[in-house]
Amino acid sequence: MTRSGAGSLSLRALFAVLCTAGSLAALSPARGSDVAPLEVTESAAGVFVHAGVHEETTSDNLGDIANIGFIVGEKCVAVIDSGGSPAVGRALAAAVRSRTSLPVCYVINTHMHPDHVFGNAAFLDAAPRPRFVGSVQLPQALAARDEHYRAALAAALGTSSDSLRLVPPDLLVDAPLRLDLGGRVLSLQRWPTAHTDNDLTVFDETTGTLWLGDLLFDQRIPSIDGSIKGWLEVSARLRELPARQVIPGHGRIAPPWPATLDTQTRYLEQVVARVRDALARGLTLQQTVEASDAADASAWRLAEGYHRRNLTAAYAELEWE
Amino acid sequence: MARQLVLIALGVFLACRAGSAPGADPADDPDASPQWQQVRAALFGSRPIAVATPDVLTLEAPYRAEDAAIVPIALRSRIEQSQARYVRTAWLVIDGNPSPLAGTFHFTPESGRADLETRVRVEQYTFMRAIAELDDGSLHMATRFVKASGGCSAPAAKDPAAAAANLGRMKLKVDDTGEPRRAQLMVSHPNTSGLAMDQITRLYPTARFVRQVTVRYRDKPVLIADVDFSISENPSFRFLFRSDDGGDLAAEVVDTDGRTFESRIPVGSTGEGA
Predict the structure, then answer these.
(1) Which of A189, A253, B52, B262 is an S-S bond match for B57, by CB 3.0 to 4.6 Å?
(2) Higher confidence at residue A36 or residue B273?
(3) Gyration radius of chain A's alpha carbons
(4) What is the sign, positive or negative, of the torsion defined by CA atoms of A8, A14, A16, A21?
């Protein structure tokens, strides 16, 4: 069913090679066989994960900044999150091919963020064409951000936004949905507004692997783009799920569970406490952000880019209490 | 074109935070901004506009915004409003936004001081400016450069369903310390621009936003704001008014669908209006 990949190249090495060739070929359609596969780890039988770097998207990392991967059944493969650019998506598709000859039948997106969805386009031309799967809320969320996401990625990669496409889901998850990969069932569940308003988890019943997307951040600072109160409520429910291992949207593959979630919860609870205190003292949004203590977030990677923004989002939410 | 290349290079480092279409550069001449030239001609014709001294007007805005969808700004005058001398109107212009005139704020001698805080959406790197017109007809402008852009923090609602469910909820608060008094009006409203095409229907949704806010103390206006969708979701306005203890502060909000939302609070107490 699977075979081990021969000599995976890192994406960075791939890009270096392409640059040396004096080409931006990484951004243009490439023949499948030309693309070096993404490095993946088999974290449980048939569960393959690639760990993204803790950086913002650049033309160097090509948006390879999130944890993405795939689960292999007896009939077909489900890709879970596709990476932050078409190039990452193609490298992920190559990684699938390096491990199995089975077709990809589902491309599942755990939520709307660019680093998890821009690789979808790499699977559009696969034959047979996979179903694209996401929360029932995902199409609207992507539609509202389409222009911005494409422009931001184009600016980061130094390409034209016309060459970028956000592929929305065509199989929507409202009530829990079970997908059969042949001898292996994935159960998909969407959640009330938390990290975003379109968070989706994937549970592999065979190995007890719970793929959390950005409902769980490890090492990289969580970013609030939904509801901080909702996220804390959803976290309490996630903690009760019968997971043998979890895959966070960022950070280590299969980190300690539920300790990793508890670390994230402590951060979010502290943000809530700081903002409630500021509101009680009559501080404005600007004053609250200016009074923020960098030490609150110093244990997280990329804290300087997101902690103050998280306070902003939390303030805008909690001032209505 | 050279600037575009520089911005693309910057984007390599700034990534998502760099955001959408290349906007203005802080080194640009703010007076030469083409959007400003258009707004200036439309609003003020050839009237002279002085550079505002801090006594007359300051504009506060973060140089780099944390979240482009909710950028806190403040325009403040130190002029004690009186019949003899007062700020009559202040305009807030965000050059790089799809609709650059974000708001027109009318003050009265009863406003105490022309002092207004709100939050705005910022589409791209841009000059932002506040122009005050005094009762003598003179114009004074304060200008800031703001680095904020759509991108990862696209100026879209984080939870549209919740926003729709809470539409029209209001909070009106008065701080009972000091004169003139500080009040805050918050309106739960998605304040949607209608500018983002729905990629499913290929249609542009109807713009629905708060277009006018009127606040009266003892039935006399202290703030009248004509605003548009550059104001963030759930519009918030903090402002001043002169009180003589007692009486009511009353706010009336009208949106583009003609819906009217009202809130009233007795002055002299603290707490929330209905």
Answers:
(1) B52
(2) A36
(3) 19
(4) positive
- Beginning with the edge strand found earlier in the chain, give each strand of the sheet holding B260-266 in spatial order: B50-51, B139-146, B126-134, B87-94, B101-107, B220-227, B210-217, B248-255, B260-266
The alpha carbons of chain B give a radius of gyration, in whole angstroms, of 19
Alpha-carbon torsion, ordered B63, B66, B72, B75, to 10 deg? 0
Given CB atoms, is B124 within the 8 Å cutoff of chain A? no
Q: Do B199 and A145 touch (CB under 8 A)?
A: no
Q: Is the peptide bond preceding residue B180 cis, with omega within 30 degrees of 0? A: yes
Lowest mean pLDDT among A104-118, A239-253, B8-22: B8-22
Give the integer Cα–Cα distance in Å for A231 and A240.
15
Kindly compute the dihedral angle of the four CA atoms of residues B21, B26, B27, B32, in this order, to the nearest 10 degrees. Answer: 70
User: Which residues are CB-contacts of B124 (< 8 A; sequence separation ≥ 6)?
Assistant: B19, B20, B21, B22, B23, B24, B96, B148, B149, B150
Please, where are the H alpha helices in chain B?
2-14, 34-44, 160-165
Report how far residue A158's alpha carbon sits from residue A85's, in angstroms, rounded to the nearest whole number: 12
Q: Under a CB-based contact definition with an 8 Å cutoff, are residues A136 and A103 in contact?
A: no
Give the residue-averaged pLDDT of B187-214. Answer: 79
Going from N- to C-terminal start, the domains of chain B cover: 2-273
| Residue whose pair of structure tokens reads 């130094």 in the numeric block | A158
Taking a C-beta distance cutoff of 8 angstroms, is the pair B163, B210 a contact? no
Q: Is A175 exposed, middle or buried (0-12, 13-18, 19+ CB in 10 A)?
A: exposed
Query: What is the SS3 assignment for B130?
Result: strand
Residue A197 neighbours by CB distance under 10 Å: 26
Dihedral angle of Cα A40, A43, A44, A48, to the nearest 10 degrees: -20
CA–CA dist A78, A133 (Å, integer): 10
The residue type of B211 is: R
Pairwise CA distance, residues B170 & B166, whole Å = 9
CATH superfamily name and code, B2-273: SoxY domain (2.60.40.2470)
Find all residues with CB under 8 Å of A85, minimum gap 6, and list them: A27, A57, A62, A63, A64, A118, A119, A153, A157, A164
Structure-derived torsion over alpha carbons of residues A230, A235, A241, A246, reported in degrees to the nearest 10: 120
CA-based nearest residue in chain B for residue A304: B66
Distance CA A84, CA A50 (A): 13
Beta strands in chain B (DSSP E): 50-51, 58-60, 71-76, 87-94, 101-107, 115-120, 126-134, 139-146, 170-174, 181-187, 210-217, 220-227, 236-241, 248-255, 260-266
Query: B126, B150 in Cβ contact below 8 A?
Result: no
Question: Where does A31-112 have alpha helices with state H?
Answer: 86-99
Q: State the smallest CA–CA distance between residue B64 and chain A in angstroms.
A: 11
Per residue in A127-158, pLDDT (tens digit) is: 999 999 999 999 999 988 888 899 889 999 99
Tokens 């707490």 locate to B271
* ipTM of predicted complex: 0.84
In B, which residues are within 8 Å of A62 by CB distance?
Answer: none
Interface touch B18/A147, C-beta < 8 Å: no
pTM over 0.80: yes
Of B119, B150, B160, the CB nearest to A148: B150
Please give the residue of chain B at the shortest CA–CA distance from A306.
B66
